[in-house]
Specification:
This protein has 375 residues and is α+β, with helices and mostly antiparallel strands. It contains nine helices and 19 strands. The strands form five sheets. Strands 2-10-9-4-7-6 form a six-stranded mixed beta sheet. It has a five-stranded mixed beta sheet with strand order 16-14-13-18-19, sandwiched between helices. The chain has a four-stranded antiparallel beta sheet with strand order 1-3-8-5. The longest helix is centred in the first third of the chain and has 21 residues.
């Protein structure tokens, strides 16, 4: 009996030592947001997945996940978190989700929470710490797991009739110029004459060679485009009004939406510093469509209210790259004398139109709305 008791003690001690030395082995952790580019206050899901690849039962796991600051739970999620023995707390620059649970042999543990982020910006989900008890619960094993996931929240969508009217006139003038000024064309091929084409388009030389009537196919050489220039600071390291910058980014989004609606190609440039794996001097070549639009929205979401260069340098680059058919929309917190000369170069160009937008257009619309409500 004594031998059996000693054998049991030895097995128990071996299990305790093994669980202490290897208790957290073969445990994998991953977390995924359901979307990486979001609207402000758009609901999305963060899913945590923990895989236990051993035959060993883990009676106690204490997990702390580090989520973005300002993370808000959707109403129905509070009860779910309580049921999973979890609690959410805010600390400096982050939100911590603390959970406790156990893991059966070869179990895969899933936990999803529905959340939202109220403000524009770039947010990170990074690192999680796992504490696991040993076989007898005397000691604690600890493992820090490296994770790096990005979530970008776009600027707020706005409605401003004054902006719609102003851009409508601006884009209308571009369309008129398309018809007033000659647009040289290139012959890119030939097709068979159907009777609907004008006689002047018939290529008599090609028709004689092939023995049938052929007409010329043309392509325009002027590609009309609008470049959206966003200024956050005229002078680097100067004071920037964060609220004005946010309003400029909202205006930039509204401008891009109008250009998409009008099917007008556009490019994008800013002198702002951006967070994440995007160049500090951010620009997007001309294009149109959802993919192009969301690429610009991602940059707008990553922007900090600090500039990487003088805005007059940004304008000079735009002037040097100017070509026939290219026009400019400048969005800035306020006009500044430091880039007056560079602006003049663009404005005096005979081939381009320039329009300047500031947050005043939003303030004016808000004041008019208040007056209407008062009346």
């Amino acid at each position: 009996m004594l031998i059996l008791f000693l054998f049991f003690i030895l097995v128990l001690a071996a299990a305790e030592i093994y669980s202490y030395l290897h208790g957290m082995d073969k445990i994998t952790y991953n977390v995924e947001p359901s979307q990486s580019l979001l609207e402000p206050n758009e609901e999305f899901t963060i899913t945590t997945k923990i895989e236990h690849h051993k035959f060993w039962f883990l009676p106690y796991i204490d997990m702390v996940e580090k989520f973005p600051e300002n993370l808000e739970l959707v109403d129905d999620t509070d009860a779910d978190i309580d049921r999973m023995h979890s609690n959410l707390s805010e600390t400096l620059n982050m939100t911590r989700l603390h959970s406790t649970f156990y893991l059966l042999p070869h179990q895969i543990f899933y936990r999803s929470i529905d959340v939202r982020l109220p403000k524009r910006g770039r947010y990170l989900i990074q690192n999680a710490s796992l504490h696991g008890g040993d076989f007898l619960g005397f000691k604690d094993n600890y493992e820090e797991i490296k994770v790096f996931k990005e979530i970008v929240v776009m600027p707020q969508k706005i409605s401003c009739p004054d902006l719609d009217n102003l851009l409508g006139d601006f884009l209308g003038n571009i369309s008129i110029r398309r018809f007033l000024f000659d647009d040289p064309m290139l012959t890119i091929g030939f097709s068979e004459y159907t009777g609907r084409e004008p006689m002047r388009d018939i290529s008599w030389i090609q028709s004689a060679r092939l023995g049938k009537m052929l007409v010329k196919n043309y392509d325009h050489t002027i590609d009309y485009c609008v470049e959206v220039l966003v200024n956050v600071q005229s002078v680097p390291n100067a004071f920037a009004d964060g609220e004005n910058v946010e309003e400029c980014l909202c205006i930039a989004r509204a401008v891009c939406e109008i250009l998409e609606t009008r099917q007008m190609k556009y490019s994008f440039t800013t002198n702002a510093i951006t967070l994440g794996p995007i160049d500090s001097l951010c620009s997007v070549d001309q294009g149109i469509g959802n993919r192009h639009f969301f690429r610009v929205m991602e940059i707008l979401g990553r922007i900090l209210p600090r500039s990487s260069e003088y805005f007059h340098s940004t304008l000079l680059r735009a002037f040097r790259s100017m070509q026939t058919g290219k026009h400019f929309i400048i969005i800035t917190p306020e006009t500044d004398s430091s880039w007056k000369d560079s602006l003049k170069l663009l404005q005096e160009s005979a081939i381009s139109q320039v329009i300047i937008l500031t947050p005043d257009i939003l303030h004016k619309a808000a004041e008019e709305q208040d007056k209407e409500e008062t009346v």
